Amino acid sequence: MIGRDEARRALSNYVETPVALLMGRMGLTPNIVTIIGLLIAVVAAYLIGVGLWWAGGLVTLFAGIFDMFDGALARMTGRASDFGALLDSTIDRVSEAVVLLGVLAYYIANDNDIGALLVYGALVGSIMVSYMRARSEGLGIECKVGVMQRPERVALTGLGLIVAHWIPVVMLIVLGVITALTIFTAIHRLTHSWRMLETEDRGT
Fold it and tell me: Which domain range does residue 38 map to?
């Protein structure tokens, strides 16, 4: 069975690097690629909001794949910067929220209160997962643990939307799973950071 690290290396070798090289030849900068990724997410949100879930799901998956290229381009062109990393992380959060906004808009327009509440839960859980990593790394702790990180959330959302275009209840299930597992991941990261801090305190 292919693990997360092996899959990541395969994507880097066979997808990220060739596409990043092409973008570099086209004169694109990493920050421009980051902004383009956000615009793609806006398109996905619009499609979802008007009920074209299958199309919105495909665009969501494409936006998730596209998000890999800014970092690869920055490394390959020597344009990696602290601001670029900050912009990338910020846009990632905004893009995820924008896609969920499209789902929320659809549920509100169709008077689906349960769907709206699940979107809220998924958004809060996703924010907490990202916040726990950022806050922990601010304290000098590497915190990438957890089962529901951003790639998993994007993939699950995109695939869920495609299937839910024909079987609507699937999206409710997907949102429930994301909500539950993001909360679990946030707690996992909190306990991980607590243990690391306790270890450091005992070592001083």
Answer: 4-203
